[in-house]
Amino acid sequence: MATELHNLSDYDPTKVPSGKGRRIAVVYSEWNQEITYALRDGAINTLIANGTEEENIERFSVPGSFELIYGASRLVKSDKYDAIIAIGCVIRGDTPHFDYICEGVTAGLSNLNVTGNTPVIFGLITTNNLEQAQERSGGRLGNKGDECAVTALHMIAQFGK
Ligand code: DLZ
């Protein structure tokens, strides 16, 4: 989680395993796209900066964060990827949808990590307002997409497939 003391984009490049030859899928939500595109691009740029070839990174869009579950599930089943990064942004409004979506996506992606053999990285931002989301998608607190990319490379290096 981002805090005043922890910037999401801070990492030590000498401690990040190389992404060379790794195949990584990035599935992202179109809902709140101002945020999710910035997260997606952050993840992709960080993967490339750490050696992943651009042609080995595939992008898949889904309408909303809830559809990340199905999208990531299909990608796990394809067995084509070393890791899958799931990116979405849910902003609390005057709707109970916030809680349902956050809980649903968290449970769905968690379940894929328990049952599948491809790590699914949790790139869902859940915030009270747009400003907090902006702070975490390239703003004051860094970019959660960067953190997801680094996490994916660590998981691949640690567990392989
Ligand atoms: C319906 C909905 C609402 C209210 N808010 C968000 C949101 O903040 N972020 C997001 O990614 N998706 C939202 N959605 C859409 C749902 O994720 C989903 O696409 C629809 O409920 C259709 O299944």
How would you summarize the topology of this molecule?
Elements: E1 24-29, H1 33-49, E2 57-62, H2 68-78, E3 83-91, H3 97-115, E4 120-127, H4 130-135, E5 137-139, E6 142-143, H5 144-159
Helix pairs in contact: 1-5, 2-3
Compact overview of the structure:
The chain is α/β, with parallel strands linked by helices and 161 residues long.
Word description of this protein:
With 161 residues, this protein is an alpha/beta fold. It has one domain: Lumazine/riboflavin synthase (Rossmann fold, 3-Layer(aba) Sandwich), CATH 3.40.50. The protein is built from five helices and six strands. The strands form two sheets. A four-stranded parallel beta sheet has the order 2-1-3-4, sandwiched between helices. Helix 1 crosses helix 5 and helix 2 packs parallel to helix 3. The structure holds ligand DLZ. The site of ligand DLZ has 15 residues, from strand 3 and helix 3.
Report the strand count: 6
What structural class should be given to the helix and strand makeup? alpha/beta
What would the average pLDDT be, to the nearest integer? 95
- Regions with little confidence, pLDDT below 50 for 5+ residues: none
* CATH fold annotation: Rossmann fold
Supply the CATH superfamily name. Answer: Lumazine/riboflavin synthase
The fraction of residues assigned to DSSP E strands is 15-25%
Instruction: Provide the CATH top-level class.
Output: Alpha Beta
Taken in chain order, the helices and strands follow as: EHEHEHEHEEH
The shape, in one word, is globular
Total domain units: 1
